[in-house]
Every structure is written in structure tokens, then in C-alpha cells.
Amino acid sequence: MVTVVLFIAGGVFVDRKADTAPVFTLIGVALALTAAGYQLYELSRVGRKDVSPGPLTRQIDRVAGRRGSGADPGTGRGDEE
């Protein structure tokens, strides 16, 4: 959410300073959607053991105290039953 607001607000700011509306606002929207899409993609990979973590996923693991690097308490229960 912060990424989207920053890119769009940055585009609006540059457009106001350069008097080029809506060029940079639209560029900001495109960059915001690209960044938000990448973040969503990375978040969909959190906790998966079959893929290597990307930069966002590594940061989440670091903030979470590397809880994701150990065994997941819910993993394996369904396999045994």
C-alpha cells in the first residue's frame, strides 16, 4: 500500500513541478502496479520450501525472526493421518 501511494504521489508531485500532467502520474501508476504485483508474487511464495526466497521473502523472514526457516507446526499433520 505504501509503495502505491509513494509512486503515485511522486508522479503527481513531478507533474505539478514540471507542468506535464498527467504524464508522470501515469508513469507512477504503472510503476506502482508493477511493484505491488511483484510484492504480491513474493508474498505468495512465503513459507514454500520448494522455491528459493526472493528479496522481499528474505526480509519477511528476517523481520519475523526466521520463524519461516524452521519446521512449520502445521506441515505434515495431514500426511500422517
Notes on the protein architecture:
The chain has 81 residues and is mostly helical. The protein is 64% helix and 0% strand. The chain contains 4 helices and no strands. Helix 1 runs antiparallel to helix 2. The protein is elongated and about 50 Å long. The protein starts with a helix and ends with a helix.
The helix count comes to 4
SS content category? mainly alpha
SSE order: HHHH
Radius of gyration: 19 Å
General form:
elongated
The average pLDDT is 81
Main β-sheet: number of strands, strand sense, barrel status? Answer: none
Q: Report the sheet-strand fraction.
A: under 5%
In whole angstroms, the N-to-C terminal distance is 40 Å
Counting copies of identical and different chains, the oligomeric state is single chain
Q: What is the count of β-strands?
A: 0
Spans of at least 5 consecutive residues whose pLDDT stays below 50 are: 76-81
